[in-house]
Amino acid sequence: MVSFTIPPDIREDRRKVSEFMKEHVYPNEAALTREDDASEALMKELQAKVKAIGMWAPFIGPEAGGSGRGFLPYAYINEIIGRSPFAQRVFGCQAPDTGNAEILLLYGTPEQKQRWLMPLVAGEMRSFFSMTEPEVSGADPTGLQARAVRDGDDWVINGHKWFSSSALESNFGIVMANADPEAQPHRRFSMIIVPTETPGVDIARAVPVMGHTGRGWTTHCEIYYRDVRVPVTNTLGNVGDGFVIAQKRLGPGRIHHCMRWLGQMQRAFEMMCSYALKRHAFGGPLADKQTVQNWIADSVAEIQAARLLTLHAAHKIDEGLDPRVEISIIKFFGAKVLHDVIDRAIQVHGALGVTEDTPLSSMYRNARGARILDGPDEVHRFVVARRVLRVFREGGVWEFE
After folding, report:
1. In whole angstroms, what is the distance from residue 268 CA to residue 256 CA?
2. Average pLDDT of the residues in 40-64
3. 3-state secondary structure of 359
4. What is the pLDDT of residue 286?
5. What is the C-alpha to C-alpha distance for residues 243 and 131, in angstroms, rounded to an integer?
6. 16-31 core/surface letters (b: 16 or more CB in 10 A; e: else)
7. Is the whole-model pTM more than 0.70?
């Protein structure tokens, strides 16, 4: 039986993060929302304060410049960080930089680590991950059309990508491209580091998402690669390792998302309960209405279930066990709970809930995207069902661990 009792040292880290959030992050959310030069300067000030308390980059260990001590400790911390959409960047653990840093640590050469990994973790650089394409389904990445052709000691890359998040004002991207069309489908693709200023990299636009365009880190960009030439030494791992690396990147990244979602759920839940107690209608507080009480009860059960499922997946990663089924479960289950809890909180707040006077509207926008990013819910359900049925076809039964 897995124990999720939080050890004293991790409890202390959570306390430090929570206190920092109360003192520095929540009061500055309105200013950070403006996404202007002043908010960027404020972000740098907050990041410096985090470094001063020794909590910078908790997703990765000291060997890469972070303060991490394992996956489960980070999961517990990320639950607090996730309560604000700005906090992951304040603490130096924002996607997509986290995933890029992790695969650079695992697959990068010493030269790649020195040039890209260390400045990235230190917050001196930003990066993006360029995989999704508008012409083909992201649910089946074997159909990706971007090509990398070998020309002497260089790759020449041509392709059309979008939802390359955080590409604006970034320093480099990691591009997924077909480098060997004759290989087996899952051995055709490679990941290649591409500096943003390389000739031929055309960041065409930041794609508006439900009315939000963003700036810098909060953008989702459409990019054209036209005869982009980079050294073959910019390849991550070996040629053809793209899918292997992607799974190493996306699996832990999904748990990062789910733990941050837990923070969002809990914050929306707290807002719902507090508002239900103080808002009166039809002769009494909303908290006395049975429908609202049902929403609160359902939310408690669902948040707790999502939390335990996510921690179980994180535990399996820390133990070196195969977490693929657990990761797919928490991806589709956690995204649904996130959406439903925030939706209930908005409904309790009424018209106020859809304004920008509370964080709920932006939380809701991000929650809807959660059911698509890192693989749509339907694909993760398919993965779970296929693995379970395989066990039964082989004469076994599915063990709930």
Report:
1. 19
2. 96
3. coil
4. 97
5. 11
6. bbeebbeebbeebeee
7. yes
